[in-house]
Write the C-alpha cells for this entry.
Amino acid sequence: MNIIDGKKIADEIKSEIAKEVKEMLDNNTKAPHLAAIIVGDDPASQTYVANKEKACHEVGFISSVYKYPSTITEKELLDTIDFINNDDDIDGLIVQQPLPKHISVDKVIEKINYTKDVDGFHPINFGKMASNLPAFIAATPLGILELLKRAGVETEGKHCVVLGRSHIVGSPMSILLARNTNPGNCTVSLCHSKTKNLKEISAQADILIVAMGKLEYVKADMVKEGAVVIDVGLHRVPSNETKSGFRLKGDVKYDEVSKKCSYITPVPGGVGPMTITALLMNTLKAAKKEI
C-alpha cells in the first residue's frame, strides 16, 4: 500500500510556482494577484482565507482580502465583484462560501469575470471543462488530478467510481476522468445518496473517489483489493489523544480500507493541502492569460 502524500506534492508544486514567479519578476512582469471576498465570520471560511493568504506569500503572489459583515446587501456584493472584475491589476478572484441566505450564490458566481474565476465555478468554465477546452478547473478536482499524475497512478481504461455529485467535487471529477486526457480515459460511474446497489458498484472500482461528506462512510467491504482510494472528506472528531481535543478524519474508514489499497490518500495530509495549491496553479494561469 502506497500513501499519496498530498503535503509533499503540494510543496513540490508551490516550489515550481515560486520559481516561475521569480522569473516573471526578473523579466519585469508583475507578480500574480489573487483577491478573496469573505462575508460574515464563519470560522472555517476565515481559516481557509488565512491559509490562502499564507500560501500566496510563500510563492510570491500578491494577496488581497475584502472582508464584509453578513449584513452586506446582494447589490453591494455584486458591485464589489464588478469593481474587481474591472481592476486590471487583479488576476484571480474567489468569493468564499458559505454566503448569507439573502445572497444568491448563483448570481455571485455568474457575476465573476470567468477569466478571473480561479475557483472554476462559473458556468462558462464548467462548460469549457466539460468540452475538454482550456478552462479553470475547480480546485479540489484539479488537485486530485495532480495527485494521481504525480503519484504515477495509471488511469487509462480503469473503472473510476465517484461517490458524491456536488458541483464542487463529484460532478467535475467524473467529467475530468472520463475525458481523453492523462489523467483520464476512465470509465466513470457517478454515485450518490439515491444510487441503488451503491456498495456493489463501489466494490468494482479500480479508482474510488469519495466525496460524500459522511464520516468514515466507506468501509473495507466497499473496496476492491488493490484499488486506488482518494478521500475528499474532512470531519472534526472529538479526541482525548490530541491537545486540540479533536482529530481530523475522512469519508473513508482508513484503518480498514488502507489494508486493501494499492494507493490511498490520508486525512489529514492528502487532498486537503492540494486544494489551495490548485488555486495557486489557476491564479498563475490567470496572470499569464492562458484561459
